[in-house]
Amino acid sequence: MTTRDIPVVSGLPDHSTIEAAMGLACRAPSVHNTQPWHWDFDGARLHLYSDPDRQLPSADPRGRQLVISCGAALHHARTAFAAGNWHTDTVRLPDPAQPQHLATIEFRPWPDPPPGVRTRADAIDHRYTDRLPMLEPVGWSDLLPALRKLVSPHEIELDVLDESARSRLATASEKSAALRRYDMLYQSELHWWAGHAEMSEGVPPTSLVSDAEFARVGIGRRFPSVPHSMRRDDIQDRARIVLLSSTGDSAQEWLHTGEALSAVLLECTAAGLTTCALTHVIEVQSGRQLLANLVPRGGLPQVLVRVGSAPGHDEPAPTPRRPMTDVFTEHWQ
User: Fold this and answer.
1) Cα separation of the two ends of the chain
2) How far apart are CA 232 and CA 234, in angstroms?
3) What is the distance between the alpha carbons of residues 228 and 219, in angstroms, rounded to a whole number?
4) Which of 58, 236, 310, 329 has the most CB atoms within 10 Å of its CB?
5) Beta strand pairing status for 37-41 and 328-330?
C-alpha cells in the first residue's frame, strides 16, 4: 500500500500529517539521547508507550528520567499537531495495569491555534543541547513570564535560581560526579551511550565538550571528554539556571515535567536562546535536597535547565535519531 492508497478519515489527520508530526515528536530531548519511546496509531487514536529496554539502570533506576523524556516527546507531538490545525485530547496513563502506556491522543480540528504554537513547532528542528559556556540570556525578563505561563497547565513550578546558588550547584555537580567515579555500572552505562559517532542514538562527540570547556561551565554531567578544544574561550558561563519542580513524584508528574520541559526549551529556542537540561544532580539524594532548599515553596526538583545566549551562529548538526520504523507503527482502518 502506498501513501496515496491510505484513506483520509474524516476528523483525523491524514497519513502525511501524522508522519510529519511523529518526525518532530522524535526530535524531543531524552536522557543520554536514549529516545525511550514508541508511538502506535491504531487508525483512530495515537498511543505513546515507554520502552523499558532503554531505561538506564544505574542513572535512572526508577524510570523517572525515562518518563520525563517521553513527556517531552508527547509535548513535541501535540505542538506539531496543533501547528497543523489539530487539537489533541490527551489522556495520560490511561490504563493503570499497563504502566508503559503513557498517553492516548484523540484528534479534533483546530482552525485557530494560538500563534505561539507554530513558533514553538518551528523551533523543534533548531533546538539543541548546548553544553558550552553561555552568555546571559538576552531578553530574559520579558521571556520569564511566558515560561511560567507555559508550565502552569502541567502543575509544574518554575524557579530561577539566584546567582548566589551557582557555586553551591557547582559543588553539588562535582560531588555527584565523585560519587559515581568508581561506580562501574554507571561508568559503563555512560560510555555506552556517549561519545560514539555514526550511531542513531546516544550523545555524539559533536555534542560533548573538552575538559577546558567544561571547567568554564561547572554545572553539568561529566560525560567522556573530547580532545582539547577552547570553543567560546573568552566566556565564563553566565547562563541563568531554571529549576522545574513538582508537588509529587509519581509517573503522572514525571510525564507532566517532560511536557513542561519541552515547552520551556522550545520557547527559549524560539527566542533565540540556547539551553541545556540537567538531571545528574537530582539523581543523588543530597543534590535533590540541596535544590529543594534553594526554592521558597519546597516541592520535588525534577529538572534543571541552563538558559543563555550563544555567540555567533554555531548551531551544530542535529543529533542522531532512530529510524522512524523503530519508534512508530500505524494501522489504518
Assistant:
1) 13
2) 5
3) 19
4) 310
5) parallel
